[in-house]
Amino acid sequence: MSSAAAPADRTALVTGASRGIGRAIALELAATGAEVVVNYASSAEAAAEVVAAIEAAGGRAWSHRANVADEAEVEGMVKAVLERSGAIDVLVNNAGITRDGLLMRMKTADWQSVIDLNLTGVFLCTRAVSRSMLKARSGRIINITSVVALMGNPGQANYSAAKAGVIGLTRSNAAEFAGRGVTVNAVAPGFIESDMTAGLDKEPILAAIPLGRMGLPDEVAGAVRFLATDPAASYITGQVLQVDGGMVMR
Ligand code: NAP
Q1: Residue 248 domain-assigned (yes or no)
Q2: Residue 73: which domain range?
Q3: Any idea what the Cα angle at residue 124 is, between residues 120 and 128, rounded to 5°?
Q4: Sequence-distant (≥ 6) Cβ neighbours of residue 109 within 8 angstroms
Q5: Nearest CA to ligand 1 atom 39
Q6: For the domain that residue 38 is a member of, what is the CATH number?
Q7: Is residue 18 part of a domain?
Q8: How far does the centroid of ligand 1 lie from the alpha carbon of residue 118, in Å?
Q9: 93, 85, 83, 112: which is closest to 39 by C-alpha?
Q10: Is the separation of the CB atoms in 165 and 114 below 8 Å?
Q11: 200 in a structural domain
């Protein structure tokens, strides 16, 4: 890790970077000079547009399709990035889905797919990059969790359990990797404008947010940029940074 104020000349792998919050994170990290690998699952065109937007702004990026819940695809992606870029300095575990429903009626498949992608996916990507980061004795891992991991949410037992698991994983990995100079932190967004929240009834949500509005993907990306930056965040590990307009104050 250089002592520069921003992650210039580093490679950042951002999962689920074709849309929403991941897209904003990719653009934000690219603006600091980092080469960005835009991971996506099915939106090839959107991922290509993110790469084009980064390049149009003078940055460096390329895309890689991989399902983060698939062990072989994750291993293949990390191998490809290491071969092409030589290192992964920043990993942002952002890919996520919802399959909401009240617990009594929740299908096992909807429980499992959310756990597989939102929790096991973070484990698989972290394990895949850990060898090279630990060897390099530097690295930043930033996991996108959610405030519902802290407060629970009716209809989101699968999602809130997975996101709470991500916080446990963040803290265990932070403790495991600290001796090798690798930090692991989480960002917990509240309600952010994206495809994921597009169909929600906004009225009760806004009433619960002290700042009185939904957040923007750029506002989450700013927190990720901070956690990826030296020396601003180099002494921070195992933390959960809430970006929620004051929704959950602890
Ligand atoms: P989004 O707009 O629905 O975008 C989801 C992203 O994840 C897309 O780029 C999608 O890729 C990717 N993805 C989905 N399945 C994948 C898979 N199997 N492998 C790799 N990538 C996959 O969601 P968002 O709102 O930006 O959310 C991003 C993260 O923030 C998620 O972890 C979410 O849980 C978390 N979060 C969001 C909010 C919110 O209010 N929006 C609040 C708290 C936390 P494709 O385009 O290829 O499908």
Answers
A1: no
A2: 7-243
A3: 170
A4: none
A5: 192
A6: 3.40.50.720
A7: yes
A8: 9
A9: 93
A10: no
A11: yes
Nearest residue (by CA) to ligand 1, atom 10, is 16
How many Å from the N-terminal Cα to the C-terminal Cα in the chain?
32
The identity of residue 101, as a single letter, is G
Determine whether 105 is exposed, middle or buried from the number of CB atoms within 10 Å of its CB (0-12, 13-18, 19+): exposed
Residues with Cβ within 8 Å of 41's Cβ and at least 6 positions away in sequence, in order, are: 16, 18, 65, 66, 67, 68, 95
Domain count, the chain: 1
- Is position 226 within any domain? yes
Ligand 1, CB cutoff 6 Å, lining residues: 15-22, 39-43, 46, 67-69, 94-97, 117, 144, 146, 189, 191-192, 194-197
Ligand 1 mean position, distance from CA 162 (Å): 14
Rg of the Cα trace of the chain?
17
Main-chain dihedrals φ then ψ at residue 162, nearest 5 degrees: -65, -45
Question: Can you read off the two tokens belonging to residue 244?
Answer: 């929620």
| Contact partners, residue 1, CB within 8 Å, separation at least 6 | 10, 89, 138, 139, 140, 181, 230, 234
Above pLDDT 90, what percent of the chain?
Answer: 95
**Residue 177, C-beta contacts closer than 8 angstroms, at least 6 positions apart:** 130, 133, 134, 139, 141, 183, 184
Nearest to 195 by CA among 48, 30, 23: 23
Query: pLDDT tens digits for 192-243?
Result: 999 999 999 999 999 999 999 999 999 999 999 999 999 999 999 999 999 9
pTM: 0.97
